[in-house]
Structure formats: structure tokens, C-alpha cells
Amino acid sequence: PGLLLLTSFLLHMKAGRASPARLLCDTRLIHKYIGEAKDMEKRASQCQALPPLTCPMVLPLVDFSLKQWKAKTNETKRREILCELALLVGAATGAQAEVTQECAGRQLSLLQRHANSFLLLLQTFGWEATPQEPGCSPRSMEHAQLAGIFLTYRQLVQGKLRFFFHDLAKDTCE
């Protein structure tokens, strides 16, 4: 599914500029990914009781003020989301190394694929920065519960990513 997202976006890019076209204008796509994030979170919560992680994972704090968000440029929003996605992928990778339960491991693997797809997608917009740029240090907090990774991913997709795509669509769609 993640590769499909990236492929779909790349196929619908306008030539000469890295701006999304028709696909960005179809809000059903982001709602599909919000639904999938909710499903991953639900399925992970239905796995057998998981012990706390022995090494707490650092997760980005993805809450935001809509007023402050609207005041940012699309490039600033993109960089912020890239940093948070990179931190989230790192946490999921670290947790996956610790989790031995197949059920939770499957959901973590799915989350990693989706988050990596969003990382690649946002990098293709190519305004200027990469997630490893200096100053890429999102607000964060340590979590020892696996559920925190799924919650953070869902909140990021449901919040900043949805609003970011909405903002891009306003500039792109008629």
C-alpha cells in the first residue's frame, strides 16, 4: 500500500514542477490512510498483552495549534512532518527489534512501510530540505508502551498530514 501511494503521487505529478496534481485534489486518499492508521492502532491493541519496551522509544509530539499551523509556509510544514516521520520510523524500527509477538510485529512492519512511504512522498515535493538537515529536532517524549507508536502515527496522519495535503490542494486544485 505504501508503494502504491508513492507511485500514484509520482504518476500524477505535473511535469517541470514537483507539485501534486489531480490526486492531491481527491480527499478520499488521505481519508483512506487515516482509516488505515486507525485500523493498525486497533489491531495492535487487540494483540496479546504486550510488556513495556525495555528501551523506551523517543516519539515526536505531533499536537499543534491550528492558528500557528496556518501561519507556517508549506515548506516549513513539510520539514516539520519529515522530521516527525523520521523519528517515528526510527522508534518503530527500534520497537520491532524488541517485539517478538507476530501480531504486534506485523502491525509495526505495516506502520513502518506507510510512514516510509509518506517520507519518500514528502521528499519528492522537493522544495529544499531533507529530514537530516540541521535543526531537525522535533519536540519529543519517551514512550515505553508500544501503543504510543501507533497513537502517534495516527495523530500525525489525522492531523498535520491531513492539513498539509489540504493546504497543498488549495494551491493546486480548482
Structure overview:
- By secondary structure, the protein is mainly alpha-helical.
- The chain has one domain: Growth Hormone, Chain: A (Up-down Bundle), CATH 1.20.1250.10.
- Helix content is 64%, strand content 5%.
- The chain has 7 helices and 2 strands; from the N terminus they run αααβαααβα.
- A two-stranded antiparallel ribbon has the order 1-2.
- α1 runs parallel beside α6 (102-124).
- The radius of gyration is 16 Å and the shape is globular.
- The two termini are 28 Å apart.
- The relative contact order is 0.24.
What's the quick description here?
By secondary structure, the protein is mainly alpha-helical. It contains 7 helices and 2 strands, in the order H-H-H-E-H-H-H-E-H. The protein has one domain: Growth Hormone, Chain: A (Up-down Bundle), CATH 1.20.1250.
Question: In terms of topology, how is this protein built?
Answer:
Elements: H1 2-11, H2 22-25, H3 28-45, E1 57-60, H4 66-71, H5 74-98, H6 102-124, E2 140-143, H7 147-172
Antiparallel strand pairs: 1-2
Helix pairs in contact: 1-6, 3-6, 3-7, 5-6, 5-7
Keywords:
7 helices, single chain, cytokine activity, Growth Hormone, Chain: A, signal, mainly alpha, 4_helix_cytokine-like_core, 174 residues, 2 strands
Main pleated sheet = 2 strands, antiparallel
Helical segment tally? 7
Distance between the termini: 28 Å
CATH class: Mainly Alpha
User: How large is the share of residues in beta strands?
Assistant: under 5%
SSE run: HHHEHHHEH
Measured on Cα atoms, how large is the radius of gyration? 16 Å
Q: Which whole number gives the mean pLDDT? A: 82
- CATH architecture type: Up-down Bundle
Please give the order of strands in the largest beta sheet. Answer: 1-2
